[in-house]
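Hello Y.,

Per our agreement to keep a running log of every chain we model this quarter, I'm adding this entry. I've kept the format consistent with earlier entries: sequence first, then predicted structure.
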Amino acid sequence: MTTAPPLLNTALMLAAHGVPVLPLRAGKLPFGNCTDCTHNACGGRPNMKTPGPCTCPHPCHGWAAATTDPTIITSPAWARAWQHAATPAYHPGGAGLTVVDLDDAAAVQWARGTLPATRTVTTTRGEHWIYRGTMPSSNAVRPGVDIKSLMQYARWLGPGTGATAAVPDDVRTLAVKPSPARRAPQALTVALRARGGECRHRSPAYLDRGISMAVLRITEARSAVHATVYRTFLAVLATHGRCGCLTDTHVNRLFTAAQAKGESARHCTDAWTNALTTLGLSHV
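Predicted structure for the entry above:
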């Protein structure tokens, strides 16, 4: 008897409660990227022709593969992964949660004397303290303590005990490091050039409204943030990228929204460059 049925049932249960899930192989590692998506060559999904979740032959992209769609979770494409999986995992940020991963007894003792009580899950060597709310993930914020929320996955080890409290300022402060990248979103590093095309926008308000809608789309993403950022960049460039109307100010608004959801400045730059290439604008 394989372990796939109980793992699959757990995954479906979590998905039904709005928790994006993915399979993990032995060693707490996600299944590797497929050849079409190595180093994010697909920009977040294969072929880059239609919107939607990744449709690779098997789960890839690590945390970004997490989904609540039962048709994907039970699809033949995922069947082999579940058969070889060691445990289900979930994307805390996609479920509106933050996990403080306490990796040893000393870290647990620190948390009990420092952080407000919340839902707690026992792990192999320590505990997961689960809070309501999202924030950027950060490893090694102090000895034995990692923060897993946006753009991270955590093992599912059971529902735990206790009431889930809101993310406290003490936890948010842990993730703030004394570097320019942490103090403020990095500025746009992809040069913008006037495209020389005819401007079809009747007023600056049209462009501003489009950017505002794009920012809102990124801000409201609850799962697949990585792919949502890429698709949004692609849509903005498809509409406004050929006439020279986009300025650094407009694009920095998009980058700021993406970084607020946990995306790195490097990923923002890569996603923007991939979108330019897809639309044939990278050499215009």
